[in-house]
Design brief:
By secondary structure, the protein is mostly helical. Among the domains are: 214 residues, Alpha Horseshoe (Serine Threonine Protein Phosphatase 5, Tetratricopeptide repeat), CATH 1.25.40; 119 residues, Homeodomain-like (Arc Repressor Mutant, subunit A, Orthogonal Bundle), CATH 1.10.10.60. Helix 2 packs antiparallel against helix 3, helix 3 packs parallel to helix 13 and helix 4 packs antiparallel against helix 5. The protein is globular and about 90 Å long. 38% of the residues are buried.
C-alpha cells in the first residue's frame, strides 16, 4: 500500500545510470528520455500521478528509439510500478516482462545486478498487493541476494539493500513471521544519507509489529517520530500513518484521538483515490497513443496498416472483453452475497452450502433430545450475540460458555448446521464483516488487516483466504462493489 515513494527512487536511480550512458555528443533520444523521466519524478513527488504517467510514456517512447537496454528496462520498469500503484497488476506484469527482457540483454556487472534487484522487488510488490505475502517475501529475499552480489556498492546499492531488508520485514509482518522486527531493524541500522525517507516507512512498519504485540503506546510513539516530518512524507505513507494511529488509539479506548486521526485518514484517502483515477485515465490515453504511433510509423502500405490496426483492435477488444467478463462475474457474485446476507445466510464459492446432515446413523455420540435442543437454543443466542468475532474463540471455550462438552457441541453443529466448527464460525465472521462493509460506508475505507481483526481473524492472510473460499471473491473486490452501490 505504501511503496509509491520507492517508485520515485526507482526513477531517480535510472537518471543516474542514464547520465553515465550518455555519449559525448549527447545523443538526443537518450537525453530526451532522461529529461522526461526527471520531470516525471518532480510531478510524482507533488502527487500528480496523471502528469507523471504521461511523462513516463513519453520517456519510454524516446528510450525505445535507442540501443540502450538499461534505459529501456528502467522506463518499462517505472511504468510497471506506476500500474502497481493503480492496482492494475496485469498491465504492470506486461511492462515488467518487457523490462526483464532488456535486463537479460545486458552484460554481467553491477548495473545488471542492481536492475535485477529492482525487478525482483517489483515482482514481489505485485504479489504483495495481491496478498500473496509468502511469495512476495521469496522475491524480496531474491532481491536481497542479488544486491549483496554487487562488488562496488554505491549510495544507490546501499539504499536498495535497505529496501530489500525493509520489504522482507514488512512481508514477514503479514505472514506472522517473528523475524519481521529483525529485518526492519537491520534496514534501520544501515546508516546512509541517501534517500533517508525510507526510515519513515521502516518506522511505520515497526509500529505495526508493536501493535501486533499489543504494545500500542510504543506503536504510537514510533508513529509520532514519523509525523515530525509530516511535510516531507509521501501522501500514501501519511495516510497509512493516520490510519495506524487511529487504530492504536482505538485499542487504548482514546475515542477523541481515534476520531481525530481516523477523519484525517478518510480525508486523505479520498484525495489519493481521486488522483489514482486521473492517472488511470492518463495511462489508457498514453497506451492508445503508443498504438496510434505504431501504426503511423509503420510502412505506408495499406496492407501493413490494416494488419497493425486489426491486431490492435483484436488485442484491445480481447482485453476489454476479458475485463468486462471478469467484472461482470465478480458483480454477480457480489449480488448473490448481498441476496444471501439479506436472508441471514452466506454462500460458498460455488454459490451453495452443503446441506445439513439430518440423520447420522453411525454417529458415535448419542445426545439426549432435551440436551440437543438446549444446545441449539444456546447456539442461536450465541449467533445473535456476535461473540464469534472473538479471535481467541475455540470449540472448547464455546462449549464452556454453553455449559456442555466439545463432543456434544461438535455433533450438534455438524448435524444441524451441516459443517464443522471452524467452517461454522468462519462463515458467520465473513457474513458479519460483509454486512459491516455493505451497510457502513466508513468500513470501505479501512485496511484489510483491520477488517480481519474486526471479525475475529488472527491474520490478514488467513482472513483473505477464508473470505475468498466462502464468497468466491477477494475482500478488495467486495469493497469495490460495495463502494459502487454507495455511490450509485
Amino acid at each position: 500500500m505504501f511503496r509509491r515513494f520507492f517508485f520515485c527512487c526507482f526513477l531517480a536511480a535510472s537518471l543516474v545510470f542514464g547520465q553515465n550512458t550518455l555519449s559525448n555528443d549527447n545523443d538526443y533520444n537518450k537525453k530526451k528520455s532522461e529529461e522526461l523521466a526527471s520531470l516525471a519524478v518532480s510531478y510524482f513527488k507533488n502527487n500528480d500521478l496523471k502528469k507523471s504517467t504521461e511523462l513516463l510514456f513519453k520517456a519510454k517512447e524516446y528510450a525505445e528509439k535507442t540501443d540502450d537496454y538499461a534505459l529501456i528496462a528502467r522506463m518499462n520498469g517505472s511504468i510497471a510500478h506506476q500500474y502497481v500503484q493503480l492496482n492494475l497488476n496485469d498491465k504492470a506484469k506486461f511492462y515488467l516482462d518487457n523490462a526483464i527482457k532488456q535486463i537479460n540483454r545486458l552484460p554481467e556487472g553491477d548495473k545488471k545486478k542492481l536492475l535485477k534487484t529492482l525487478s525482483y522487488l517489483e515482482i514481489g510488490n505485485i504479489d504483495f498487493d495481491e496478498e500473496n505475502y509468502q511469495k512476495a517475501s521469496d522475491y524480496y529475499k531474491r532481491s536481497l541476494r542479488e544486491i549483496e552480489l554487487v562488488k562496488n556498492p554505491d549510495e544507490q546499492s546501499i539504499y536498495h539493500h535497505r529496501r530489500s531488508l525493509y520489504n522482507i520485514g514488512n512481508s514477514y509482518y503479514y505472514i506472522k513471521n517473528d523475524s519481521a522486527e529483525i529485518y526492519l531493524n537491520k534496514a534501520l541500522a544501515i546508516k546512509s544519507n541517501y534517500n533517508k525517507e525510507i526510515n519513515y516507512f521502516i518506522y511505520n512498519a515497526l509500529s505495526q509489529v508493536y501493535a501486533g504485540r499489543k504494545e500500542y503506546q510504543r506503536a504510537i510513539d514510533t508513529l509520532k517520530i514519523v509525523l515530525k516530518h509530516k511535510n516531507d512524507l509521501d501522501t500514501r505513507l501519511l495516510s497509512d500513518v493516520y490510519y495506524n494511529l487511529s487504530q492504536d488509539y482505538k485499542a487504548l479506548n482514546d475515542q477523541y484521538q481515534y476520531s481525530l486521526y481516523n477523519e484525517e485518514f478518510i480525508k486523505l484517502n479520498r484525495s489519493i483515490r481521486e488522483s489514482e483515477m486521473k492517472a488511470i485515465s492518463s495511462a489508457i490515453n498514453a497506451e492508445q497513443k503508443d498504438y496510434k504511433d505504431a501504426i503511423s510509423d509503420a510502412d505506408s502500405s495499406k496492407k501493413n496498416i490494416v494488419i497493425i490496426s486489426t491486431a490492435f483492435v483484436f488485442v484491445l477488444a480481447c482485453a476489454i472483453i476479458f475485463l468486462l467478463y471478469r467484472r461482470k462475474k465478480e458483480r454477480k457474485v457480489f449480488e448473490n452475497i448481498i441476496t444471501k446476507l439479506e436472508s441471514d445466510k452466506i454462500i460458498s464459492a460455488e454459490n451453495k452450502l452443503e446441506p445439513a446432515v439430518e440423520v447420522q446413523k453411525d454417529s458415535p455420540v448419542q445426545i439426549p433430545n432435551s440436551v440437543e435442543q438446549d444446545i441449539l437454543e444456546k447456539l442461536q443466542k450465541f449467533e445473535e450475540s456476535e461473540k464469534f468475532t472473538n479471535s481467541k474463540l475455540t470449540i472448547a471455550s464455546l462449549a464452556l460458555q454453553l455449559k456442555t462438552n466439545t463432543s456434544y457441541l461438535s455433533e450438534v453443529i455438524n448435524k444441524y448446521k451441516g459443517k464443522n466448527f471452524n467452517t461454522y464460525i468462519n462463515e458467520m465472521r465473513i457474513a458479519y464483516i460483509c454486512q459491516k462493509i455493505y451497510n457502513h460506508k466508513e468500513y470501505q475505507n479501512y485496511k484489510i488487516s483491520y477488517l480481519a481483526e474486526e471479525c475475529g481473524f488472527a491474520s490478514h492472510s488467513s482472513f483473505a483466504t477464508v473470505f475468498r473460499n466462502i464468497t468466491g471473491i477477494s475482500p478488495s473486490v467486495f469493497i469495490r462493489e460495495a463502494s459502487k452501490n454507495q455511490s450509485s
